[in-house]
Amino acid sequence: MTRKPLNSLPGFNFWIKSRWPQLIIRAVLLGGFIIAILAGFLGTPVGNRNISIVAVWIAWWAALILVAVPIFGRGWCAICPIPMPGEWLQNKAVLGPSVNRNSSKVSRRFPKRIRNIWLQNAAFSLLAVFSVVILTRPIVTAWVLLALILVAIGVSLFYERRVFCRYLCPVGGFIGIYSQQAPLELRVADPSICATHKEKSCYRGNEEGYGCPWDVYPGSLTANTNCGLCMECLRTCEYDNILINLRSSGDKLPAVRGGSLDSSYKAFIMLGSAIVYSAVMLGPWSGLKDAAYQIGSLTWWGYAVGLLVVIWAALPGLFYLVTRAAHKLSPSFHNPRQIFNTHASVLVPLSLTAWIAFSLSFVFANGSYLVPVLSDPFGWGWNLFGTSNAIWTPYLSQYVPVLQTIVLTGGLFWAARKSQQIAEARNAPRQSWPIIIFCTFITVSLLWLFVG
Amino acid sequence: MRPSKYIFISGFLLAGLLVAFTPLPVPRNEPMHHIFHVDSRSFAFTPAEIKVDRGDLVTIELTSSDVVHGLYLDGYELEISTDPGQTNQLTFTADRAGSFRFRCSVTCGDLHPFMIGKLQVGPNLLLWRGAGLAILAALAGVWKFHQ
Question: ipTM score of the complex?
Answer without folding.
Answer: 0.93
